[in-house]
Amino acid sequence: MPNDGTGALPVIRHIILKDSKSSTYKLALLRVRARIAEGSLGLTRAVNDEYVAVPLGLVAVFWLRQFKPVLQAKLPQMPNNVGLDGLGFVKDAYRRITHLSNLDFRVAARFTGQDALFVHQAIRDAVSNIKVMPAKYTSFPTGLRVYGVTSGRSLRLVRELVLDPDYLGSFGELLVPEPIWRALTRLNVWIEPSLVAEWIRIMKDYVIGQGRQVSEETFFQATRWADPERDVRMARELALELLRRNQLFCVWTRQKLKEESLDIDHCFPWSAWPCGDLWNLLPALRSVNQRQKTDRLPSTERLAKAREFIIDWWNAGYVRNANPLIGKQFLTEACASLPGIAETPSPETVFDGMELQRLRLHHDQQVPEWE
Description:
The protein is of the alpha+beta class. The protein is built from 15 helices and 10 strands. Helix content is 51%, strand content 9%. The two termini are 36 Å apart.
């Protein structure tokens, strides 16, 4: 990778290819940070000009999410590891949650009963392992440590657990050098394939050393990052409730909607940024969504003109819903995905975050605009 002027890309190249490794953990931590930079900017914060702070609880949730399919495929993460044995973050709690999908590990996910207790402990175990292994030993070419770590606060085990910003931040923070963080937010489309290729190469060496054979397809399927399914059912059901009370309008045209003309639009197109959060799902005329907007990003002007109707929909469909969990899910997802709103979440600040994210998608990914 060429130097981008900040020195970040040579450091990332060093971490991927040159930094000594006794396991795949350094690559796993780098990939987790890249994924957080891609889709959870709202939960990060700038400490100063030198560092960006990422909640360690969020790092651990993404850590578990990416490792579940890898471990299910029994791909070794260190020379003598097979399956769940021998890994520092795999303790009794992790073994008790193997029935959960990797997609269950996401911001705003809710767990109850025994699952809540074991997920909480598994996250604690992952945080502890990340602190003493990859966060401690990932280094610059000079030998200095790349990451800093801050302490968290202790939490008691609970029987209902929501992976919201307060909970994820309770484990402390991972401090990432600002140039490296900026490179991950803008250039991950090139960085991630490089680190995944190296991760697969290392696992193949471990497999050969163990005298085993694993198909190429297994490696690629296990390391593929699974995005959430394109599911608009909740938003559609809530929209139909309002429609039956004659209170539903297309956010783009301000026309009253009918059941046969209702579509649920991803404001930021799924093809460019797969996000099924409630804030991103808007009621729209089917003809507008499927023939005019399609896979384009609303322009600055079009989004501004729709502000009042978008906020009205959020309030009526989510915030003032009779089920308070829906409003909480809406704000929690928005705080995680959108920049700048975590401290003062409200429909108005969510819209401000949406405008900032729109600029980022247009600038960094050159998503075509719907003028």
